[in-house]
Specification:
With 281 residues, the protein is an alpha+beta fold. It has two domains: 101 residues, Pseudouridine synthase I, catalytic domain, N-terminal subdomain (Alpha-Beta Plaits), CATH 3.30.70.580; 154 residues, Alpha-Beta Plaits, CATH 3.30.70.660. 21% of the residues lie in helices and 25% in strands. It contains five helices and ten strands; from the N terminus they run βαββαβββαβββααβ. Strands 1, 2, 3, 4, 5, 6, 7, 8, 9 and 10 form a ten-stranded mixed beta sheet that branches. Helix 1 packs across helix 2. The longest helix has 14 residues. The C terminus is likely disordered.
Length: 281
């Protein structure tokens, strides 16, 4: 069994199923004995990006060949994913009972907001569909931080969940460990001729509800714009009702990045001797 983490750009419709299918196809091209089946730690909806998602899969080689070396497996899978908006970053061999989703201890998302952008065409090309560009030249960051502090801790986040097919099966009580707002940078800050201010909103929890991060982000930006008060955000949280969430506040998907899925060290690499032959068979 292998655990790997990978990066993906979230511009493809039905992103989760498409990327899972493409990775499974790449694994199958390594000609394993077993059929490739990928278990992903975190689902991302259309437009959301992942700098470090993770997954596990089983791979048994033919003719009792030893397991692939980790770096060779990364190279092999990326070779078969060349045309896709996805790259494998690392791979580790793990125990047979390891599960990428259920063994995850926390997930961290970062939401990027570009300030003072009158029109999307004014963004550098490197930021295209990689941030939420708003016309406001500044936000009340201190008020946003005060509001973010309200969200930290264990709460019923029903007001910040969107309706989906899993809604009745998921416990709305979640523990939010981190909700912070910091200054950020453009990916092209050194080379772009026009200075653009960025904010980065960071959220960490063991798990999140459907669109919870985008809804929390939209509410915090509304506080920064003066459209919501800290007291109103607290009332929204305490309402425990997704219908209480104001319309048109949800932050768009393309500014959101899954940046880390954390595990216990004891759950990860199973260090053994690996083969070093080529990956063609």
């Amino acid at each position: 069994r292998y655990w790997k983490h990978y990066a993906q750009r979230g511009s493809i419709p039905h992103l989760f199923s498409v990327h899972r299918h493409k990775i499974q196809e790449a694994i199958q091209k390594l000609k394993p004995v077993n059929s490739a089946s990928l278990s992903v730690s975190s689902r991302t909806d259309t437009g959301v990006h992942a700098l470090s998602n993770s997954a596990h899969f089983d791979l048994q080689r033919r003719n009792n060949k030893p397991p692939f070396a980790e770096d060779l497996l990364v190279e092999a899978l990326n070779y078969h994913l060349q045309t896709e908006q996805i790259r494998i970053n690392q791979a580790h061999r793990v125990p047979d009972d390891f599960h990428a989703r259920y063994r995850a201890q926390s997930r961290t998302y970062v939401y990027r907001v570009a300030l003072g952008v009158r029109h999307r065409a004014l963004l550098p090309l490197t930021e295209s569909n990689l941030c939420w560009d708003i016309q406001d030249t500044e936000l009340d960051v201190e008020a946003m931080r005060e509001a973010a502090a309200v969200l930290i801790g264990t709460h019923d986040f029903s007001s910040f969940r969107a309706v989906n097919s899993d809604m009745t099966f998921k416990n709305p009580v979640k523990t939010l460990d981190v909700a912070s707002i910091q200054l950020g940078n453009s990916f092209a800050s050194t080379y772009f001729h026009r200075q653009i201010s960025f904010l980065e909103l960071t959220f960490t929890s063991r798990s999140f509800l459907y669109k919870q991060v985008r809804r929390m982000t939209g509410a915090l930006v509304a506080v920064g714009r003066g459209l919501l008060t800290v007291s109103q955000l607290r009332d929204l949280l305490e309402a425990k009702d997704n219908l209480a969430y104001p319309q048109n506040l949800v932050a768009p998907a393309h500014g959101l990045f899954l940046t880390q899925v954390a595990y216990r060290e004891s759950d990860l690499p199973l260090r053994q001797a690996f083969c070093t032959d080529n990956f063609k068979d």
